[in-house]
Write a structure and sequence with these properties.
This protein has a single domain, classed as 2-Layer Sandwich (HIT family, subunit A), CATH 3.30.428.10. By secondary structure, it is α+β, with helices and mostly antiparallel strands. The chain is built from 6 helices and 14 strands. It starts with 7 loop residues before the first strand and ends in a 10-residue tail after the last helix. Helices cover about 25% and strands about 20% of the residues.
Length: about 350
């Protein structure tokens, strides 16, 4: 099939953008030396880590002696709730406006040596419940119109502390990328009367080419239009606008999917796999957003091994994204990965 042989473009219906695919450049995406990453041995408790229970954070604030998840307002928040309203319109090309928001940190576990892929599923279910609780709480603020839940894992993704944690940025304005997805989903719903991601998931379930794994409530797959080498989406089987409407069983299934995806990533190159992962869901601005469906994105940078990364440079910065490994190749590789973490094999 030409999609596995010839240069072509693939369309991303969520953003309206394209990605150039060049499968002829490397039909075996893991050619050459594959190096395992050095796995850092971390203690369960680090007295120098400001996210470990009881330790001091910025300004002398102490992290509580928590035993499950722990949430606090970010000590170095990118957005502030008390920002005055101001606007600059000096010219058509000189525009600015202030924005209010709330930024929080979620510690996934009190143990410094864990990641989501190494945590017990019941404990990850606690993380999912915390996401739900935080979404409900932040959505009550009348100036909050969008809530971005995400995790940066690994120093290469800009994570400054290895303690297992994620962030929430609750914002006054809907950011550009979620807005593109929302507008595309609304346009599709207006034309076809069905959610875009519902139709897309049904298509992927029929073809099976890009599926990685599934459980009763969620499906993990490499999207047809993936830009990053091992980019993944997790989609719910039942249709939800946001995470708050997940049942307890669905929340447990999402925890199962997060752990299984994390283990497969780690096993791919036998390293603590870096990524940015986040939830895209319905805004809290009071609009209906009938076409919007909750989903998760994983954007990992590793290309051929624990030490070989993909960078957006040259043509990709000046033209458009490009990849050699097709989505189908990436999905097959991830499907082959075992679901027992490599650190527990012996």
């Amino acid at each position: 099939m030409y999609l596995q042989e010839d240069p072509h473009r693939r369309y991303n219906p969520l953003t309206g953008e394209w990605v150039k695919v060049s499968p002829h450049r490397t039909k075996r995406p893991w050619q050459g030396q594959v190096e395992d990453g050095a796995v850092e041995k971390r203690p369960e408790y680090d007295p120098k880590c400001y996210l470990c229970p009881g330790n001091e954070r910025a300004g002398g604030v102490k992290t509580e002696q928590y035993t499950g998840t722990y949430v606090f307002d970010n000590d170095f928040a990118a957005l502030l709730s008390d920002t005055d309203q101001n606007e600059l319109n000096d010219a058509p090309f000189i525009k600015a406006r202030t924005e209010r928001g709330i930024c929080r940190v979620i510690c996934f576990s009190p143990r410094h040596d864990l990641t989501l892929s190494l945590m017990e599923k019941k404990d990850v279910a606690g993380v999912v419940k915390t996401w739900q609780d935080q979404f409900r709480d932040l959505a009550k603020r009348d100036f909050i119109n969008h809530i971005q839940i995400f995790e940066n894992r690994g120093a290469v993704m800009g994570c400054s502390n290895p303690h297992p944690h994620g962030q929430i940025w609750a914002e006054e304005l809907i950011p550009d990328l979620p807005m593109k997805e929302l507008e595309s989903q609304e346009a599709y719903f207006a034309e076809y009367g069905r959610p875009l991601l519902e139709d897309y998931l049904n298509y992927e379930l029929k073809t099976g080419e890009r599926l990685i794994f599934s459980n009763k409530s969620f499906v993990a797959l490499v999207p047809f239009w993936a830009v990053w080498p091992y980019e993944v989406m997790i989609l719910p089987r039942n249709q939800h606008g946001d995470i708050t409407t997940l049942s307890r069983e669905e929340g447990d299934d999402l925890a199962d999917a997060l752990v299984r995806m994390g283990i497969r990533y780690d096993n791919l190159f036998k390293t603590s796999f870096p990524y940015s992962m986040g939830l895209h869901q319905k805004p809290t601005d009071g609009q209906a957003w009938k076409g919007c469906r909750f989903h998760l994105h994983y954007f990992p940078p590793l290309l051929r091994s624990a030490t070989v990364k993909k960078f957006m440079v040259g043509y990709e910065m000046l033209g458009m994204p490009q990849r050699d490994i097709t989505a189908e190749m990436a999905a097959a590789r991830l499907r082959e990965c075992p679901e027992i973490h490599f650190s527990k094999e012996n």
